[in-house]
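Hey, resending since the last one bounced:
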Amino acid sequence: MRANGYWSALVGSYGLGTPSVNATESGFDLWKVQVEANLDSNLYFNPVFTENIDNKASSVTYNDVHVTTQTTDLTIDALINAPDDQPFFVMMSLRAPQRNSASPLADLDFFGKKTNFTVPASFFTTYTNVSWTSTHADNRVADLYRSWDLKVNLDSTDKVVGTGGGLFKNSTTAYTTWLKTLNANQTKTWNDYYGNLS
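The structure tokens again:
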């Protein structure tokens, strides 16, 4: 797009390393991305973005915010500040709903006390006649980590049965480490909703 006269921007999750600060090489005049190196420690809250600032890759931490909200705000900012004298292309890549699927804290009680949800027919699938990808993904509750994915029963019996996205070997350790990335207010809100799992 850039080679054809478009001002271009990339905002959000980026799993291909840090883009080049040279716009000709990266293809983007502006980029504000959550690169792989920053994903393990701050998947959802207080995200660290790598941004091209003054032709340098700089780390910027956004405190007290969920990554989806921050990515949206940065994308809106890119749209507002796109040059008026040329066409533009803005690509937004959201982190969610990848594991561990931590929603914004304000949305934790979105369904209130509702516990009676209709289970879709696909919940009981045997994964026959589906793509190879579907049969090898951790799509079954049995494949999920109780602590990391389901936020329940954090104890030493939480066996590693799924892939965990390849981020870690011990889901209990991963979850407690992830909880430590939350600030005091975020931790209180999280524990008030889910209960203190650690």
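The mean pLDDT is 79.

Sorry for the duplicate.
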